[in-house]
Amino acid sequence: MIGPGFQQSTNRNSPSHQEDDVDLEALVNDMNSSFESLYTSCSVQTESTPLLHNGQPHRSATYQTQAQPTSPHQRLRRSQPMHILAVRRLQEEEQQYRTSSLPAIPNPFPELCSPASSPTLSSGSLPQCQPSGKYIIKIFSEDGMGKVVEIPADMTARDLCQFLVYKNHCVDDNSWALVEHHPALGLERCLEDHELVVQVQASMTSESKFLFRKNYAKYEFFKNPLSFFPEQMVAWCQETNGTIPPSQLLQNFLNSSSCPEIQGYLYVKEMSRKSWKKLYVFLRRSGLYFSTKGTSKEPRHLQLLADLEDSNVFTVITGRKLHNAPTDFEFCIKPNKVRNEVKELRMLCAEDEQSRTCWMTAFRLFKYGILLYQNYKIPQQRKTLLSHFSAPVRSVSENSLVAMDFSGRTGRVIDNPVEAQSAAMEEGHAWRKRSQRMNILGSPSPLHPSSLSGVIHRTQLWFHGRISREESHKMIHQQGRVDGMFLLRDSQSNPKAFVLTMCHHQKIKHFQILPCEEDGQMFLSLDDAATKFTDLIQLVEFYMLNRGVLPCKLKHPCTTVAL
């Protein structure tokens, strides 16, 4: 490049060098003409451009595009500010050298200074945001204890439940569920098996958490749909004026081309108010609507209450006092974008438990459709593959045990499942007889002053000790309210008695188990000594096979697990 210093030196030269000066100016003019197209293409009036000054980049220069005179010297000056790639590379290398030569100091004001504009920050001092594909999830049990697990981004709720069942040695009966719990809002819902846990956690607040517990009613409507969908609430049933077969009722809900409809009265809480209105509501695939004119279904009389696509249905667990609800059967439609804004929740209230269950189940069917049926059939197909095993599904810790026969000189493994089951039953009757004989002889038991049968029931999953009546109601309600769900607890009114709490037709009933004496021996009975049992285990086993005086057989034990 040619600078002003070169011009001064040429003026001081002798006249013999003037021809050389003319040739040099002509060469410079040729160079300027070659860059003419570059300057005409630039429309920016002012920009900062590095210049070469004595062979070094000069940073304080500012390139200004102005009308230049046509003299050779002026054209020579105009040729100086040029975009030279070598200068840019030199500038970048110098910037990197300055950055690497300084110590790595954490940036106290990241919002005011970026790494590119601050020479005091090194690239190694900033965190690298590289996705690892693993996420940390904390799961809580009903006793408040939690466990931290690391899961991939594509793990579903079913996969996580199977993982927790395996780790905690639970009985895998396909009734475990992951519950989304919002204590600040007083809401909770059971995640569907196909939902991604990481996506659900992204919409939760820091106070929200996941619970791991049983839910027997998750797919109960596939087994007994008529009990979940009363005919007076299904518009399709009313139009046909007849009883609908259960299979046809489910096909109508699962078929996307059909237009089923759930209708009935609901109490709707007004937005940002504490008052409730009783409205006639329609639930369709397109959303939840209410009629502005009685029970009219005309489109001009329908207004949208909630959308199904971007919302989920939750059960309200805080009770009717918090929202001043007219009944105890509250539920809520919560948009996915809502976190802690109570004003954005659509609070609803049904007349009874059956109506609330119908609305919430229909909401799930309308939103997920055939996916729910596929989730229901997956464990059924797995049971079909394992049908050649006659033994029931056992926990992981029990799978390492085998049945043994020590009646002869040497022990042998019992391979026949039928023989193994009969041997187990004989062993159970044998220890009961030994316990009774020890009580008659007055031999003390190492576990309890009275007998082993007086405390053996405390090791069972269905026994919950000294819990209150309200706590038993809450536990059964959380785990599904299906027919045959039961638990046993200590009686609060009689210290020597027990209480059987069970569910039938979504109603919770209590039966007191009283001790009775016969021939100097104590028994337990819940039908005024008509049927007597030596312990609670024998009583539960009997009523799981026989209905007796109960409204139905005992089917599903209400259990809790400690993570």
TrEMBL record:
Which residue range or ranges hold the PH domain? 259-368
Stretches the record annotates as Disordered: 48-77
Give the Polar residues compositional bias ranges.
48-73
What does the UniProt keyword field contain? Cytoplasm, Phosphoprotein, SH2 domain
Record-annotated Ras-associating domain positions: 133-217
Chief location of this protein within or outside the cell:
cytoplasm
InterPro entries in alphabetical order: BPS-dom, GRB/APBB1IP, Grb10_SH2, PH-like_dom_sf, PH_APBB1IP, PH_domain, RA_dom, SH2
Q: Name one GO molecular function term.
A: insulin receptor binding
The record ties this protein, via SUPFAM superfamilies, to: PH domain-like, SH2 domain, Ubiquitin-like
Query: Which intervals hold domain SH2?
Result: 462-558
User: Which cell locations does it reside in?
Assistant: Cytoplasm
Its GO biological process terms?
A: insulin receptor signaling pathway; negative regulation of insulin receptor signaling pathway; negative regulation of Wnt signaling pathway
Q: Which GO terms describe its cellular component?
A: cytoplasm
Coiled-coil positions are none
PANTHER family referenced in this protein's UniProt entry, alphabetically: GROWTH FACTOR RECEPTOR-BOUND PROTEIN (PTHR11243), GROWTH FACTOR RECEPTOR-BOUND PROTEIN 10 (PTHR11243:SF4)
Q: Which family does it belong to?
A: Belongs to the GRB7/10/14 family.
Q: What is this protein called?
A: Growth factor receptor-bound protein 10-like
Q: What is the lineage of its organism?
A: Eukaryota, Metazoa, Chordata, Craniata, Vertebrata
